Every structure is written in structure tokens, then in C-alpha cells.
Amino acid sequence: MSLLNRAIAGTLPLLPRAVIEPFARPYIAGETVADLVGEAEALNRQGYLVATSQLGEFVTDRAEANGATEVYRQLLDEVHERRLAAYVHVKVTQLGLMIDRDFCRDQIRSLLEHAAKRGGTFLRMDMEDSPRIDATLDLHRELHHAYPNFGVVLQARMRRSLEDARELAKVKANVRVCKGVYLEPPEIAYTEPQEIRDHYLAILRVLLSAGCYVGIATHDDWLVDEASRMVQEFGLSPERYEFQMLHGVRPRFRENVKQSGHRVRVGVPFGPDWMPYSLRRLRKNPEIARHVLRAVFSKG
């Protein structure tokens, strides 16, 4: 990122929510479950699958964690009743991991049971920063045998992820593979872009060769091309994998991937805590960030 783009990105957190909101809108469905349902229905009509989550993380209050769990129950009800082609993903720190590990496990189990009673809607745990990796994978190991509608995420940035993939491959887990957004020390994480890409493909090969269903989460042209070649190499039908992309990020590219015959799932977050997520997305798109600043100065 250039010095100018870094300077632009650095000013964004200082701006009022009202200024950011119009530019954040492409990345989120809105603040409510109803907003999400409307966006998911529109994407389904366009031929996309959907993955959705309620924004928020690092919760340290039990009442707040319980409130997040209740929203997820409502979301699971809507997915089932409206027959949305969608699944739900959660963050362990939003559901109480930082309060108590067993409390978090019970929250997740209650959602899995709720989903099982409503058609078996799929539930996936996101992968967060490095202090949370072991706990997340342990929770998956503990619950996966009883709840097959339960998946997890690996980040190619993390050096350990290839070995984690080998363990998940033994149980044919449903795994989302992404590059990872958390900046970690070089002792535990790759930092060079091509290293991350190469590690991503190594993880993908382990999982696909074991017969795992994989969500190939990337907006990287090179990775999409290489992953497509790997899918052809293994002779996989489109029902055995999917590409995943974020709402508002490279929509023409995702349409091209879909038109090529691949299943594409769009990640659509929602919730009142949209500001941190939207700022991350805007920082990755300096051109839009410039439009934000122009809007501020034009009102001055």
C-alpha cells in the first residue's frame, strides 16, 4: 500500500458513522435479521449461495453473548422457514470464549441442536486470531462427531494450518480455507503474499484429496485459477466444493466464476456493530476510501 493510501486508510476511523455508512452499505446487509433475509433472498435469485454472520467479537459479558446466541437462533429459524440457500457462521469470541470455554461450547451446542431441529442448517465457526486457534479446533473436535452440520475455517497465513488440515482431513471435515486477515508474528505466520498463496494450495490439496467439502474463499485471480485446475485434476463435480467471496468485493469477478460453472457463496454479514468490519473492507479499497474523504470535504 502506498504512503498516500496508508494516510487515507488511517483517517477513516476518525470519521463519523454517518459519513462512513453509505460507503459501507455494499459490504453488509444492514443491521437486522430482516435486512439479512432480504439480501439473501436477492442473492439466491441471482444464483448465489449465502453465508451470513452477525458482526461482533471479543465479547466479555455473558448477557451480550447470550443476546448474540438468541439472534443466531432467530437467523436459523428464518433460513429454515424461508428455505434460503444459506448457512450461518459464528465467532467463538462473540459467543463467550473469553468468558468461559465451556460456556462458549454450550452456546454453540445449543445452536447446533436448534439447527438440527430445523432441517439441519449448516453452522460454521470462523477462525479468529492465533490465541483462539487451539480452542476453536478443540471445540470442532468435541462437537463434530455428534453434529455433522458443523464446520470450521483454516487460515493459509498461519504456518500450522497445513498440519491442522491433515487432522481435519481424517474426519472429512467441512472446511473453509481463506488467506486470513489477522496480522501475526512471522514466527507463526507467513508474511509474503506468494508464500501464503502456496500454503493455501497445499492446504487445499490435502483437504480435497481426502474427500473433504471445501469452501475456497478468495478474491485472488491466481488462486481461483489454480484451485480450478486442482478441482479438474481430482475430477470433482460442482457439488463437492464451492468458491466463496465477500459481499461487495469484486462482484463482476464472482459472477464470472459462477458463469464458469462453479458454485459461489457470498458472505453477507449484518448487525449494528458494522463499523469495524466496514473499515477493514474500506482500507483494502483505497479508491473507495478516497470517495469517502471527498464526500467529507464536499460538505465542508
Word description of this protein:
The protein is 50% helix and 14% strand. The chain is an alpha/beta fold and 300 residues long. The mean pLDDT is 89. It has an eight-stranded parallel β-barrel, surrounded by eight helices.
The largest pleated sheet is described as: 8 strands, parallel, barrel
End-to-end Cα distance: 28 Å
Identify low-pLDDT runs.
none
Strand order of the largest sheet: 1-2-3-4-5-6-7-8
Average pLDDT metric: 89
Order of helices and strands: HHHEHEHEHEHEHEHEHEHH
Shape: globular
Proportion of helical residues: 40-55%
Radius of gyration of CA atoms, rounded to a whole number: 19 Å
Number of strands: 8
**Count of DSSP H/I helices:** 12
Q: What fraction of residues sit in β-strands?
A: 5-15%
Helix and strand content put the structural class at alpha/beta
